[in-house]
Amino acid sequence: MKWLVLSDSHGMRGSVYDILDSHPDAAGLFFLGDGLDDVEYVENTHPHLQVYAVSGNCDRTRGTLEGVADCGGVKVFYTHGHLYGVKSALGPLCKRAKEEGAAVALYGHTHNPLCGTQDSVLLANPGAVSSFPSRYGILTVEDGVPSFQLRMI
């Protein structure tokens, strides 16, 4: 199964929908903040998608700030990242993911795409939809093993 991972759209709603429309087989969407208005209609326009969304520092904390989801038997911790100082270090984010029993931690905020492993946690930042070119990620879980791909449009 695959899940789309988007962050930091900052008003680029058209790019969000371009990404969604190019992956009709996606099971769900993680939106990691800073553009909640851009995804508020996704549930109406793409009703087959399970949407997980958090508020970012530019969303005026309208929604939840973090969450945990089960993706094909793999626990995924997701947050915008600003509360964990992700521009400086990823240790606090990794620690929080481990506290939640998560094998994957998804975050945004920096606008810089990244995928790596720290202390057995897959850490992934899709980059920013508002960048040129727009950046996003795909989280795939096969046989209980997560992987992450960085993409751009």
Topology:
Elements: E1 2-6, H1 13-21, E2 28-31, H2 36-39, H3 42-45, E3 50-53, E4 66-71, E5 74-79, H4 91-99, E6 104-106, E7 114-118, E8 121-125, E9 135-142, E10 145-152
Parallel strand pairs: 1-2, 2-3, 5-6, 6-8
Antiparallel strand pairs: 1-9, 4-5, 7-8, 9-10
How would you characterize this protein structure?
The chain is an alpha/beta fold and 153 residues long. It has a single domain (2-152), classed as 4-Layer Sandwich (Purple Acid Phosphatase, chain A, domain 2). Helix content is 17%, strand content 35%. It contains 4 helices and 10 strands, in the order βαβααβββαβββββ. The protein has helices at residues 13-21, 36-39, 42-45, 91-99, and strands at 2-6, 28-31, 50-53, 66-71, 74-79, 104-106, 114-118, 121-125, 135-142, 145-152. A 5-stranded mixed β-sheet has the order 3-2-1-9-10, covered by helices on one side. Strands 4-5-6-8-7 form a 5-stranded mixed β-sheet, with helices on one face. Strand 1 (2-6), helix 1 (13-21) and strand 2 (28-31) form a beta-alpha-beta unit. The chain is globular. The chain starts with a strand and ends with a strand. The model has no long low-confidence stretch (mean pLDDT 96).
Outline type = globular
| Share of residues in strands | 35-45%
CATH architecture: 4-Layer Sandwich
Number of DSSP helices? 4
Helix content: 10-25%
The overall pLDDT, averaged over residues, is 96
* CATH class categorisation: Alpha Beta
Organism: Candidatus Ruthenibacterium avium
GO molecular function, one term: metal ion binding
Protein name: Phosphoesterase
Domain Calcineurin-like phosphoesterase: 1-142
